[in-house]
Amino acid sequence: MYKLLIVDDEKMIRLGIKKGIDWKSLDVGEVFVAASGLEALEVLEKEQPQIMLTDICMPDMSGLLLIEKAREMYPVEEMRIMVLTGYDRFEYARQCLQMNVQDFLLKPVNQEELKNTVREQIKELETIRIKREQNEKNLRTEGSKRQTAMENFMRNLVHRRFEKNKEDAYLEELKGDRKRPMEIALLIPEVLMDNRKENERDFQRMTIKNLCMDLIDARRLGITFSDDDGKIVVAFYADNTERNVTERVEELSEILENECIVKLRVVLGSEAEGLDALSISYNDAVFLLERESEGFQEILKQKSDRKKELLIQDVYREFKQAMISNITDGNKVMYVYEKFMHASESYNLSKAQVQKWCFDIAAGIYFMCITENGANIDNRMEPLLKALIGIGREEALEVTATFIRKLVFPEENVQHEIIMNAKHYIDEHLESELSVVKLSEKFYLSPNYFSRLFKRVTDEGCNEYIVRKRIEKSKLLLEMTSIKAKEIAVMVGYNDTSYFSLAFKKHTGMSPRKYRESLQKNRGIMEELQ
Fold first, then answer.
1. What three-state secondary structure class fits 115?
2. d(C-alpha 55, C-alpha 478), whole Å
3. What is residue 86's three-state secondary structure?
4. DSSP state, 2?
5. Are 223 and 269 in the same domain?
6. In what order do the strands lie in the sheet with 2-7?
7. Rounded to whole angstroms, how far apart are CA atoms 64 and 40?
8. Of 114, 129, 144, which closes a domain?
């Protein structure tokens, strides 16, 4: 169903058009009205309609200016615009054509003419949608082929299966990165060490690997692949500082724990001077893993060279200032606070130092909320101080995060609304490429914060929710249609049919084919009983 916006300063006209046509028969589910250009802009931003019907002559903002601003917000392929006016002027029509207006209708408009025009625009939108989906499908297919080639190359590289420096062995897209410093990270999920069923371990491994590709490869921070033993390996680019790689690992570990409910152990190799030397970093990590066989949720390194409290003083002050200066933007404050959390862990700060700085940051933000936003003075700082004393570093960071969140988001409904909107978007786009990274970008949050927020609001990881909804839809399609399982996989967002089968079996206990057969068998039994 599509959304349509009617803009006209004459109430009888806009309401007459809204109520005089059976819009649902045209596949229009919601119809909004606006009495002015300014009101229309608010509707455009909030509701994002795909079709707009607007008058030209309006008091506060002309229809032409509204169209110009609408085109800045939405390109032609996302919004179809029709002009409805009582002035049959060539100049109006010429300007409308220059702004990519789809149709120009004269008042009083015939209802059948308007319905046909809207029908044509919806037809165009459907054509654009189908073409876009096909292009996305082609891109995903091509991307899958490139990813397979990339993984094979990286696996051969770390296992030294072709001659060093042999030019034609390198993939074209990696030739420019041959001298970039890189560092290997072996990801060892706890799930791979327990007694779960093999198909559950395979599903978990593929889920972790796909999340790593979204968080690392898609952001051009490194390359994810599997070695000969099936271990998940990430080759991080280490252009900036070693701390940068450690921060990325910390962020990755936290998101994977939220999304996959899995503890992660990361083993880092030495820094390699480019791809040609990457096998050295890999072998260092494997050696360290074999030597240090115990422990989860920790990062193993060859040497302990993390900076201490004195070296982070300047960075800490920058974090605090950034939060205070953005006090009116709650999302920005929480984003910077996350950076502070990662830095505290990366520098291995003492418990006492973290407690002190947490209280200092909270006090600064509390003071600014009172002076800038007119919040009421209360005694909430004392309970925070008591809470911080006697707890560990990680707990102190989380307690302070909750305290700050309540200050900068006085209405928790704001966060709930973000997640509800995210869930709605997921439900409506199951066939699309969905990930924590893409969703966090859509809602202007960091991946780490979005992942934690989703888990806190719904008590379910975002990736877990996506998988569950996809399986629910696939079960319905298997039950209600005769579409092949591999086609259903694509329809619910899985281009890898083996991954789809693993996910389906994990949630239902049987393969898609067996599930359909069991439904047909039960249906036959019920028919016999009747």
1. helix
2. 48
3. coil
4. E
5. yes
6. 28-34, 2-7, 51-54, 80-85, 103-106
7. 13
8. 129
SS (H, E, C) 324-350: HHCCCCHHHHHHHHHHHHHHHHHCCCC
In the chain, the N- to C-terminal Cα span, in Å, equals 39
- pLDDT tier at 188, thresholds 50, 70, 90: confident
How buried is residue 309: exposed, middle or buried, by Cβ count under 10 Å (0-12/13-18/19+)? middle
- Is 160 within a domain? no
Q: What is the rounded CA–CA span in Å between residue 364 and residue 381? A: 11
Give the separation between CA 156 and CA 467, rounded to whole angstroms.
32
Which residue in the block uniquely carries the two structure tokens 């409290």?
309
Which one, of 174, 134, 129, 167, lies nearest residue 152 by Cα? 174
Pairing label, strands 222-226, 182-189: unpaired
SS3 at position 66: helix
Q: Are 498 and 457 in contact (CB under 8 A)?
A: no
Distance CA 336, CA 287 (A): 36
Residue showing tokens 């706890």: 190
Question: Do 85 and 56 touch, CB atoms closer than 8 A?
Answer: yes
Token pair for 323: 């939060």
Whole-angstrom distance, CA of residue 235 vs CA of residue 269: 10
Residue where the block lists tokens 């899995």: 262
Structural domain tally of the chain?
Answer: 4
Residue at which a domain ends, from 300, 324, 350: 300
- Quote the radius of gyration of the chain (alpha carbons, Å): 28
E strands in 227-341: 232-237, 264-272, 299-300
> Are the CB atoms for 171 and 153 separated by under 8 Å?
yes
- Tell me which amino acid residue 195 is: N
Do 16 and 119 belong to one domain?
yes
What is the tens place of the pLDDT at every residue in 400-410?
A: 988 888 888 76
**Amino acid sitting at position 38:** L
Phi, psi of 100 (to 5 degrees): 60, 45
Is residue 240 pLDDT above 60, yes or no?
no
Sequence-ordered list of residues with C-beta below 8 angstroms from that of 266, at least 6 positions apart, any chain = 185, 186, 187, 188, 249, 252, 253, 298, 299, 300
Burial class (CB in 10 A: 0-12, 13-18, 19+), 377: exposed
Mean pLDDT score across all residues of the chain:
81
H runs (alpha helix) in 1-77: 11-20, 37-47, 63-73
Q: Which residues pair with 84 in a beta bridge?
A: 105
Average pLDDT over residues 287-293: 73
Q: In the prediction, which pLDDT does 161 show?
A: 81
Distances (CA, A) of 374 to 103, 320, 366, 369: 50, 21, 11, 7
Tokens of 127: 């054509």
Q: Which of 519, 481, 513 is nearest to 500 (CA)?
A: 513
CB-based contact 82:103 (threshold 8 Å): yes
Give residue 365's identity as a one-letter amino acid code: I
CB-CB contact of 188 with 231 (8 Å): yes
Element at 53 (helix H, strand E)? strand 51-54
Query: Looking at the structure, do residues 347 and 284 belong to the same domain, yes or no?
Result: no
